[in-house]
Amino acid sequence: MPPAPADVLGPKPLDGGWGWMVVFGAHISIGFAYSTPKALSIFFKPIQKDLGASYSEIAWISSIMLAVMYAGGPVSSMLVRRFGSRPVVMMGGLMCGVSMVTASFGSSIVYLYLCIGIIGGWGLCFNLNASLTIISKYFLVKRPLANGLAMAGSPVFLCFLAPVNQYLLGHFGWRGSLLILGGMMLNCCVAGALMRPVAQPCIPRSCTPPKEVDQSKNTKSKGSFMKKVKTFVDLSFFKDQGFIIYLIGNVMFIFGAYAPIVFLSAYAISQGVEEYSAAYLLSIMGFVDMFVRPGTGLLANSKWIRPRIQYLFSFAMVFNGTFHLLCPLMRTYPLLVAYAVFFGVGFGMVFALIFECLMDLMGNQCFPSAVGLVTIIECFPMLLGPPAAGLLVDIFGDYKYLFFMCGGVITTGGLFLFIMNAYNYNRLDKANRGKGMEQNQNTVENQEQASSSEAQMELMDPEVKEMNTTQLDPEHKEEAS
User: Fold this and answer.
1) What is the pTM of this model?
2) How far apart are CA 429 and CA 12, in angstroms?
3) Other Cβ atoms within 10 Å of 409 Cβ, number
4) CA distance 18 to 22
5) CB 50 within 8 A of CB 366
6) pLDDT tens-digit map of 44-81
7) For residue 230, which phi and psi values (nearest 5 degrees)?
8) Residue 252's Cα: distance from chain center in Å?
9) Neighbour count for residue 456 (Cβ, 10 Å)
């Protein structure tokens, strides 16, 4: 009987070996996926002047890109299940490169929405989801560390992309900079080539999974199609209270997470900071974030934090939101540097844990479907967050209100996660204790029944007992004859 669970659960992850090369490839693809929408904010001022766009209109570029990246999660999951992570990441890198090259010829803000937002967003979506999925196949015990190292690609790439973009902007303008950036993003194709598929062991034909595959191939009815859709967008996750709590807190964080990054350079310039120094604020944030993410992964992998990882995630959100609320008080460059440092700490902690917490809740088998559902829901706050912040700047002519909005939403989401997770864990503990008491009660009843049956046997008629013994003892029977 031991082989049956192995067939159901699949092969044990390697937790090393070529998996570290996969982490390196995911580091590159995830780095471009998360850092590109942030680093593009360096070009927003000249694009705004060249095309005559407002703050809210220019913010739609990053918002559409991020929203498409998150909304395409189910499609990316379907492609990963069908073709594997390697071709999906390589296709995503090609789409990212093409999007930046074509955007360099743009003459209207709508054209940039199409090229950078939609085409580039799809490319980043393929890079992100496929990389996260293959890490969950290569790692189990060391998964928090592997996720932390892979997610550290975002701050690493942001750390050098921000000053590089500022340098390119000064020498080639925003059009030439986008052209060069598109060539750089083709390196995602190389990163995808490192993502070698995990070798699957041979499964006997009598097992259940192959039968399901054969049925899905041979059946062409509408019902089978709906079953396939449910495997990629499984709405039954909404029955899980822990998943709903995670989703609500995550949506609140995503709404306020990216607007401070998009407008940080512009806010610093409005306070009299030089353009290069303002761009270096993003590099400082990325540099701090670079070390915080793997450090958080190590901390989350410890035996004391691993069972309480949801609480660490809540603390990271509150920490992040608090410093957004304090940002309007920081008007000098040294104070803005301090804000960038603490912003990097909070942002790095959250994004080192955001997918690990989902894996902790749903498990490896359900993670691809769960992350697809989560990302498609997150596209709505992702789409509305930066433009809403830009609208506040257009209305009030001051950046402080966008920091108040983002900080308040993120802090509220962190407190919500902390309180609701505590409630949910207490509810689960009571349920487990109730099951344990029922099991103990059942064992006691079984013991009482066994003892009562023994007592009845002892109180039986002696003649019946003698008849039973004579039937079992042939020597006793011969002596009696």
Assistant:
1) 0.69
2) 29
3) 22
4) 7
5) no
6) 888 888 888 888 888 888 889 988 887 887 788 788 88
7) -65, -25
8) 15
9) 9
